[in-house]
Amino acid sequence: MKRDLNFSLDTLQAQELLIDNQIDIASPSLIINLSKEPIYLLIDNSIINQFESRLLYNQTLLSRKAQACIIKLPNETKNWLDTPQMICEEIQEKWQTAFNLYPHIGELKKLGMYKSPKDIINGFELNLWFLKEKSPGRIHKEHSFTEVHLQVLGIGKMQKYLKQERSSLYETAFMTPGFTHYPFYDKHIQYPWHSYDAITNCIWMTIEKH
Known about the structure:
About 5% of the residues lie in helices and about 45% in strands. It is mainly beta. It folds into two domains: about 1-70, Jelly Rolls (Sandwich), CATH 2.60.120; about 85-210, Sandwich (Jelly Rolls), CATH 2.60.120. Strand 12 and strand 13 (about 125-130) form a beta hairpin.
């Protein structure tokens, strides 16, 4: 079973995927497992566990009943280390700017940041974000929910800080297509100061549990 998600674009197709048998993946695709049921890759018997992601080509997936998100990558580029112009243009036409959505956060006014509509898979809220190249994101830590991020296109950085100042940086996780970073929150759902920064034009997915 496949279902187009609310944030699926003409230039970047995103779908919910129920894997209850064998499924072939032909074109280059990102997949993230959103269930506790493992997904097996038959070509080498490796496993995709919950919140793990892969960038796959010509693979066969097998599971008893796993729910996943799959994003088909464009063929117009070979390494996906930047976001193709056609996708940037569709995003700016269809999505809202972060500042329009959160006008009380003045820092967002100068950022070329856009947010897609949301969708839900297996109780997890998903949406995509876009940030223009060479843009440092907002340093924040106020979350009442758990979240991780999957890099879709471009190169970015998830950064940790001791306080709400860039000079207090103490850790960087580089984000490349197909990579999902480890959770930043602790068992009390407390986050350090952190930001997402774009090196190239970037698209990433947030996976939230409220």
